[in-house]
Each structure stands twice: as structure tokens, then as C-alpha cells.
Write a structure and sequence with these properties.
The protein is of the alpha+beta class. The protein folds into two domains: about 160 residues, no CATH class; about 45 residues, no CATH class. It is about 25% helix and about 35% strand. It has four helices and eleven strands; from the N terminus they run H-E-E-E-E-E-E-E-E-E-E-E-H-H-H. An eleven-stranded antiparallel sheet has the order 1-5-4-3-2-6-7-8-9-10-11. The longest helix has 22 residues. The chain starts with a helix and ends with a helix.
Length: about 230
Amino acid sequence: MKRNILLTLLFIASLTVVNSQAQSVFKDTDIDKYISTVPIPKNNEINLVGTPYASDDFKKGAAIKDGLTIARNIGLRYNAHKDIFEIKKTFVLTDGQARLLKKTDEISLKIDSESYVFLAPSANNKAQGYFILLYKGEQLTLYKKIKKEYIPAQKAYSSMSKPVPPTYKEKLIYYIADNEGILTELSSSKKKKVDALSEDHKKEIKAFVKENKLNVNKDEDLIKLAEYTDSL
């Protein structure tokens, strides 16, 4: 009886080791080669309106390579104005210990439910940098890009006007990519968004939007439309 129990425990232990090895092809140190030695430059401007970041605070995230997690519980913050990621190798480090992440398409970054991917420049695509992957299908991929435009401070030019502080203005831009990876920027117009998704199935797509009362200026509805379009 004892022998059977011992054999069972050994079998379970061996399965655990095999499973652990299968899930841990990468080591925690594999993220090191993507972290630069460059510290985060300080912003000395005061009275700023808005922020250059997608979120001012670092968020807990993960780095993914070839479908496997190579780093967990890292601190990530996206500077949308400069299109760069700041990283803390472990989330508990201070913000002053953060460094710049090297730009590479070898890894994607997971923050909450969002997945950031880096698209390298190519002859076919003017758009490049970090994009949020909203949907990936067989025929098309849907991306969102966060941009932050910097508007310098403006002095008061008369006693009737007021000075305007430096401001960061956010803009969200959506793109679709075909199965060859060629990016097309979607218009801010709802109608043009729908028209751009497919030249061959405009009638079906418009009917789907109307029937489901989709607002394609909302991420969740645009994703639904992309999924439907990809199924045609």
C-alpha cells in the first residue's frame, strides 16, 4: 500500500516538473536584453494640462515572446507622446529605477486586458511604433494607436486674454491590416470606417451594423464588426 502511494506521488511530481518545464522555456532574465540602461528623463514643465502617458502611473504587466510569458509582474508605462515604453523589471521598484524599453517586434506587452505590439517600419507602411491589438483574424487585424500631441504654452497677448498652459491632447487612431500586413488608417467618420473594412461586402457589413445598432467609434462595437467582416 505504502509502495503504491509512493509511486503515485512520484508520478504526480514528475508530471509537475514536465509541465513546469513546458511552460517555462524562458527565464526571467530573458527580459534583460530588451531593457536599456537609459534612465527616464524628468519632465520639469509645470502647470501641464493632460499627460504624455496613456496612464500616469506604472501598471503591472507582462512581456510575451513566441506565445510564452518571459516576464511577469513588471512595471510598464506607455509614453504615447514619444511612442516609447518605460519599464521596471519588477513592479515594486521605484519610478526612479525605471528604464526605457528597447523597441522590438520580438515581444508584446500585456497590461490589464490590452496587448501592445511594436510594428517595425516597412516600405509598405508609413505607420509604425506601438499599437494596441484589438482583434487578429485570418483576413484582417484591427489596431488602435494612442497619440498625444504636445501644444506649447501660449502667453496672454492682451489684458482681455489669459495665458494657456502647455497641453497634451489625446487622439485615438484605428488601423486595419490585411493578411499581408499592409496597414490602412481608418477615418474618424463612422461611414468611412464601415466602408474601409471591405470593398467586396459593403452591403452585408452595412446591414450588420444597422441590425446590431453598432457604434463603430466604440472599441467593442468596432471589434464586433471586424470579427464579422473577417468571417465573410
